[in-house]
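To: structure subgroup
Subject: Chain for Friday's discussion

All,

I'm putting the inputs and outputs inline so they're searchable in the archive.
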Amino acid sequence: MSSMGSAPGWIVKLTALALVTVCCVIILGSWTRLADAGLGCPDWPGCYGRLLVPQTAVEIQQAEALYPNSPVEVGKGWMEMTHRYFATALGFLILIIALGSWIYRRRLYYPFKHTQLLLAVVILQGAFGAWTVTWKLWPQIVTAHLFGGFISASLLAILLLRFSRMGRQVRPLRLRQRRSSLRVWALIGLFLTVAQIFLGGWMSANYAAMACSDLPACNGQWWPAMNFAEGFNLSQTLGPNYLGGLMDGEARKAIHMMHRIMAVVLGIYLLLLARKFWQQPDVRLHFFAVLLALLFSTQFVLGLANIYWHLPLPVAVAHNFGGACLFVTMISINYFLFSRRSKPSYE
């Protein structure tokens, strides 16, 4: 087997298709969660023991006899199953990529370990998907499942980038300062982005998005009564059904307000980071600067729209997907700065 050459075209195309598919999975997953359809099917991987949602009166009667505490809601069942169908297709695509990579693993710069890691992550995501249902929307698992989707999208985006770099010379980064300084900035930006996504996921998992229903205050108060101990209790027990959330109002306000505060902190930092990238001579960093500014500005406006219009489903889904795009961008920036093949030249 040759150790040289570009990435095989069929794997590149499958990776691109998988990236599109994971975007669909993220959108469908958030749509399902925000429409309160996360338990539209009370079992896994089927729906009331079937591959298709029960439709006829006889099928519904049989399904409700099997799960007497879970009445059939056909619309919500189809939301959940459509999400699962796309997730299954994504897993199948990644399995083919990972298995096919064994053929090309000796090629120069072939990201073989990357493809195997991607397969491991998507298998874990499947487990999180099952636990989300069987553990009745336990907030810890719901939040972890959200992160798993974002990580899968990031790994696919970086894999596509690495494939594009195979078989050709990579231009060095043109910088005006040491790369170590930009790396620190990028790592802090990633940490803040992860913290904000956790807060957003935790808020959604605990149904705290409308704990504050006005702007810029919270229900007419600048600093309402909040219960941080309960709001950020990560040891909630398994067993109860968490559909609709079990926290009281003060706990939900604590989560919501922290998400708001962190949005301001993250926004200021990302704009400073974008400015720092714009000051570098490399046009690729200019692209990231513009992308960061656009993504965060869009996210901020969508967040305001969620409060002002009381969480309209399309806006809430777009806000969730915007978070995924921001996470992928920050991962890509860090890969770009830490990659051994991106050796800098200074001006």
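Points worth raising on Friday:
The first helix runs from residue 9 to 34.
The chain has a mean pLDDT of 94.

D.
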